[in-house]
Write a sequence for this structure.
C-alpha cells in the first residue's frame, strides 16, 4: 500500500525545513512528511565550514529546530532516504529502499551535491568536500594526523575552511584556477583584499593554478599541479561548487537543466510539484530578469515561504532581495544584491582599515554591495539596491555621508 501525505517535502535542509514551518504557521492542517538523504534532522549548513569545523559550536547548536519541534507539529521525518524517481501522473515518488510514497503536493527542496574533482586520486582517503555533517566529521577525525592541507577552489567555502584550519595551526595552501579568489561572486577589490588577508595569516594562495592529480596510494599525500610540482597534503578539501540535485524531477519531465525551472510562486512545469532553494531556476528582477539559481540560505528560506503561501491559497510572487554572508578570520562579509553584469564599482572606505564596502553599479544604478565589517552600510545599502537608486558617485564614496541619505 502506498504511504500517502498531503504534503511531501523532498529535502531536509534550510528550504525544506522552512517550507514545513511556514505551512504550519499558515494553519495548514493536512499531513506533512519530509524526506532527507542524511540521517540527521534539519540543521544549518553555513556553520559547517566555520563554527562546527572549528569546534566552537556543537551539532546540537546548529539544529534548525530541536527534535521535539517536528513531533509537536506533526511533521513526519523520513531521514536517511533518497528519492530516486517521481511519477507525476500517479502523484508518487519512489525511494532508494524501494518504498512508494504518495502525495497531494510535492515540494522539491533537495539543494545540490558537492561537485567532485575529476582527476586521478579523487577517491583517496583524506580528500573531502564540505557539504554535510558527515563530511566535516570525517575532516575533524583526521585533524590530529594532519599538518598540511590543500584547498582546491578559492570560493567562499574554500576560503572559510582555509581560515578555520589556519587558526587550528595547519599549513594551508589554496589553489584557484582563476586569476583571483571569489572571481565568480565578487569584484577585484574584494578579491584582492581577501587574498592579502589570507596571505597575511600564513595561507599560501596560488592563483591561475591547475590541478593534475591527487597523489597517494590509499591516503592523499599531496596534490600534483599541471606544472609538475607536488604540494604536500595529508588533507585535501575540494570546494568547486555544487551540482543541483534535480535528476529525478527532470527524468519525470520537469522543465529545466542546471536546476529545475519554477514560476514566481515556485511551481514547476509539473502539476502539484513545487521547487525551491539552491536547485530552483527562477527569474530574478535583481539579475535584470535573467533566469538564475541562488545558492544561499536566504533564497531557500524566502522561496519556501513563497511556496507555503501559494499552497495555502494566498500567493505572493517571490521578489526578495538576495543577501549572503561569510566569516573569515575576524572579518564579517555581508552582501546584498547581485553584482552580476555590473559595469562600475565604487570603493567606500579604505580596505587598510579592514572596514569598507564595495558598491556595484550598472548603468548608474546600485545593484549590489559587499560590506566588510561595515554592517551599517549593509543595512542602509539595501534600500539603494531595492530602489534601483542612481546616486551621486562622489557622495557614494564618502563614508561621512550615510547611505540612507542617498536612498
Amino acid at each position: 500500500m502506498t504511504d500517502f501525505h498531503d504534503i511531501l517535502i523532498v529535502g531536509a535542509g534550510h528550504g525544506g525545513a522552512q517550507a514545513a514551518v511556514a505551512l504550519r504557521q499558515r494553519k495548514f492542517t493536512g499531513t506533512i512528511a519530509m524526506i532527507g538523504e542524511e540521517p540527521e534532522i534539519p540543521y544549518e549548513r553555513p556553520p559547517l565550514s566555520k563554527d562546527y569545523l572549528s569546534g566552537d559550536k556543537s551539532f546540537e547548536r546548529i539544529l534548525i529546530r530541536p527534535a521535539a519541534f517536528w513531533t509537536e507539529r506533526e511533521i513526519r521525518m523520513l531521514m536517511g532516504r533518497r528519492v530516486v524517481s517521481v511519477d507525476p501522473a500517479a502523484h508518487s515518488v519512489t525511494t532508494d529502499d524501494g518504498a512508494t510514497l504518495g502525495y497531494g503536493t510535492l515540494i522539491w527542496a533537495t539543494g545540490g551535491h558537492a561537485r567532485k574533482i575529476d582527476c586521478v586520486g579523487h577517491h583517496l582517503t583524506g580528500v573531502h568536500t564540505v557539504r554535510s555533517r558527515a563530511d566535516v566529521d570525517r575532516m575533524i577525525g583526521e585533524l590530529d594526523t594532519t599538518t598540511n592541507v590543500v584547498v582546491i577552489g578559492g570560493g567562499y567555502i574554500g576560503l572559510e575552511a582555509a581560515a578555520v584550519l589556519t587558526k587550528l595551526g595547519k599549513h594551508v595552501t589554496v589553489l584557484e584556477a582563476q586569476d583571483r579568489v571569489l572571481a565568480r561572486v565578487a569584484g577585484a577589490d574584494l578579491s584582492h583584499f581577501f587574498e592579502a588577508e589570507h596571505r597575511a595569516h600564513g595561507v599560501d594562495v596560488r592563483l591561475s593554478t591547475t590541478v593534475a592529480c591527487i597523489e597517494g596510494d590509499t591516503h592523499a599525500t599531496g596534490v600534483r599541479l599541471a606544472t609538475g610540482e607536488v604540494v604536500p597534503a595529508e588533507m585535501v578539501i575540494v570546494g568547486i561548487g555544487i551540482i543541483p540535485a534535480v535528476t529525478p524531477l527532470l527524468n519525470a519531465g520537469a522543465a529545466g537543466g542546471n536546476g529545475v525551472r519554477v514560476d514566481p510562486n515556485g511551481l514547476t512545469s509539473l502539476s502539484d510539484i513545487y521547487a525551491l532553494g539552491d536547485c530552483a531556476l527562477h527569474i530574478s528582477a535583481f539579475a535584470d530578469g535573467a533566469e538564475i539559481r541562488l545558492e544561499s540560505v536566504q533564497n531557500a528560506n524566502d522561496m519556501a515561504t513563497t511556496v507555503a503561501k501559494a499552497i495555502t491559497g494566498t500567493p505572493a510572487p517571490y521578489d526578495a532581495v538576495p543577501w549572503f554572508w561569510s566569516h573569515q578570520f575576524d572579518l564579517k562579509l555581508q552582501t546584498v544584491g547581485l553584482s552580476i553584469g555590473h559595469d562600475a564599482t565604487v570603493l567606500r572606505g579604505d580596505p587598510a582599515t579592514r572596514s569598507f564596502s564595495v558598491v556595484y553599479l550598472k548603468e548608474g544604478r546600485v545593484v549590489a554591495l559587499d560590506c566588510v565589517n561595515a554592517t551599517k552600510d549593509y543595512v542602509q545599502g539595501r534600500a539603494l539596491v531595492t530602489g534601483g537608486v542612481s546616486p551621486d558617485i562622489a557622495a557614494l564614496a564618502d563614508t561621512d555621508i550615510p547611505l540612507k541619505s542617498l536612498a
